[in-house]
């Protein structure tokens, strides 16, 4: 899969995982596991596996042929979500003859960039599988045509707009779906078809009937089968290569679907040779979490047990299958964590030519000059001297240049999944440099993508050896 195919992919974590990451993994021989099931008879040395949670998070791992209880797990972690606008649970809104869709903001987006864009909807819908409404499933939907728009107020009516574009996120950020006449033309017909959802008010009382009809057409189901949904707005403009030498990628959701792509491709590339796992004694893994943009505190976020449960299960399986006498799975789990290492992969702030003074004078990452190690004395990033040194050793083996970033003392610092995951394992924070972070369309370097993939592949192949060369405790 190419970078452009990835950037052109689905607009929400669940769809991106299904149509990009899972497709890549299954093509490379990874087999799906399920958390609700026992892995006892499924997981083998030398095997490749993945599992999902909530349709929006994923862990994939490959087990070395020489893996033993308590050995390390080498992980690249990233997050699947990006700032966006989300349809409210009750979204019906009409004003001045317009149908509007009530939204709320998700994450810390540059919301001004969502004005005057051709927007559409993507997400998941809970539907009944039959008129009996006793079986249900979660299905993905992706409306491909422009559907909504948040128009700006004309300059003639807002003469100070070029001095400071100020707006109220509740009152001025609500998108237009259509004209009220369109609702009146179909409302009676759709309401006559309405069935009550399971334990909820009818969907027709919470959302415009024309919106529900659109979803039903996209899904190939009846309106009355729609029970609930989670929908996000997205920009329909496709990504593009840009710059005088096509050295840039202009695309949505660079933060952080790009890292998810690089992690997946790096893991697969590390397994390219048939004997890649023959002498490997560790587990190679990627962990792609949802909800980083809103704090990671969720069942599918980095604060959950998503990745740790995998390590614990494998330790327990090893204990169960051992012939060398009784072992304690908790002790092996703890030992495994001590031997493990995680690369927290997000994006980094490239120096901006129009705002260069925002960066610390000696720490100004450049696009297409290599991935960036991110540090912060207040632990907003998880990098330490030890973890940074180890990654530098890997980068040297991979022939990948690295850059550094810290914020100025008078600037606030963002964060990543790194600090919370570093509570359990040694962690370094890394990211490719980009501009327009959290805009509806972002900008990064096309050459940095290949370098990051190469770095991750070398990390999976060589970290065990590099780690043995350093003594700390």
Automatic annotation (TrEMBL):
<keyword id="KW-0645">Protease</keyword>
<dbReference type="Pfam" id="PF02127">
    <property type="entry name" value="Peptidase_M18"/>
</dbReference>
<comment type="similarity">
    <text>Belongs to the peptidase M18 family.</text>
</comment>
<keyword id="KW-0482">Metalloprotease</keyword>
<dbReference type="GO" id="GO:0006508">
    <property type="term" value="P:proteolysis"/>
</dbReference>
<protein>
    <recommendedName>
        <fullName>aspartyl aminopeptidase</fullName>
        <ecNumber>3.4.11.21</ecNumber>
    </recommendedName>
</protein>
<dbReference type="InterPro" id="IPR023358">
    <property type="entry name" value="Peptidase_M18_dom2"/>
</dbReference>
<keyword id="KW-0862">Zinc</keyword>
<dbReference type="GO" id="GO:0004177">
    <property type="term" value="F:aminopeptidase activity"/>
</dbReference>
<dbReference type="GO" id="GO:0008270">
    <property type="term" value="F:zinc ion binding"/>
</dbReference>
<keyword id="KW-0479">Metal-binding</keyword>
<dbReference type="GO" id="GO:0000324">
    <property type="term" value="C:fungal-type vacuole"/>
</dbReference>
<dbReference type="InterPro" id="IPR001948">
    <property type="entry name" value="Peptidase_M18"/>
</dbReference>
<dbReference type="GO" id="GO:0008237">
    <property type="term" value="F:metallopeptidase activity"/>
</dbReference>
<keyword id="KW-0031">Aminopeptidase</keyword>
<keyword id="KW-0378">Hydrolase</keyword>
């Amino acid at each position: 899969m190419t970078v452009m195919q990835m950037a052109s992919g689905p607009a929400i974590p669940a769809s991106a995982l299904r149509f990009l990451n899972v497709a890549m993994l299954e093509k490379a021989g990874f087999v799906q596991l399920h958390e609700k099931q026992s892995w006892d008879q499924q997981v083998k040395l030398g095997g490749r596996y993945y599992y999902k949670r909530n349709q929006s998070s994923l862990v994939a791992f490959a087990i070395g042929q020489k893996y033993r209880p308590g050995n390390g797990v080498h992980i690249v972690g990233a997050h699947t979500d990006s700032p966006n606008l989300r349809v409210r649970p009750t979204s019906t809104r009409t004003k001045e003859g317009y149908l509007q869709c009530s939204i709320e903001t998700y994450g810390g987006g540059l919301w001004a960039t969502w004005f005057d864009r051709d927007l559409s909807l993507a997400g998941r819908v809970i539907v009944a599988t039959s008129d009996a409404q006793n079986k249900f499933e979660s299905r993905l939907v992706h409306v491909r045509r422009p559907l909504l728009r948040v128009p700006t107020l004309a300059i003639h009516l807002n003469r100070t707009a070029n001095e400071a574009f100020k707006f109220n996120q509740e009152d001025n950020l609500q998108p237009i779906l259509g004209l009220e006449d369109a609702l009146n033309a179909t409302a009676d017909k759709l309401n006559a078809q309405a069935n009550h959802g399971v334990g909820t008010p009818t969907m027709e009382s919470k959302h415009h009937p024309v919106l529900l009809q659109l979803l039903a057409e996209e899904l190939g189901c009846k309106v009355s089968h729609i029970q609930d949904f989670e929908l996000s707005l997205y920009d329909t403009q496709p990504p593009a290569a840009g710059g005088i030498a096509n050295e840039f990628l202009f695309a949505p959701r660079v933060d952080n679907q790009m890292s998810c792509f690089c992690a997946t491709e790096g893991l697969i590339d590390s397994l390219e040779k048939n004997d890649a796992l023959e002498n490997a004694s560790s587990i190679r893994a990627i962990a792609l979490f949802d909800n980083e943009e809103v704090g990671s505190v969720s069942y599918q976020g980095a604060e959950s047990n998503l990745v740790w449960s995998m390590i614990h299960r494998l330790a327990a399986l090893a204990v169960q299958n051992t012939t060398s006498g009784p072992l304690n799975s908790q002790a092996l789990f703890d030992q495994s964590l001590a031997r493990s290492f995680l690369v927290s992969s997000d994006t980094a702030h490239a120096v901006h030519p129009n705002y260069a003074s925002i960066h610390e004078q000696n720490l100004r990452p450049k696009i297409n000059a290599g991935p960036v190690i991110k540090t912060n004395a207040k632990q907003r990033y998880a990098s330490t001297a030890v973890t940074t040194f180890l990654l530098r050793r890997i980068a040297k083996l991979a022939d990948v240049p690295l850059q550094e970033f810290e914020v100025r003392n008078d600037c606030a610092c963002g964060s990543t999944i790194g600090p919370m995951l570093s509570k359990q394992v040694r962690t370094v924070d890394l990211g490719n440099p980009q501009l327009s972070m959290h805009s509806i369309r972002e900008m990064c370097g096309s050459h940095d993508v290949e370098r990051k993939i190469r770095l991750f592949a070398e990390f999976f192949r060589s970290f065990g050896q590099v780690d043995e060369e350093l003594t700390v405790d």
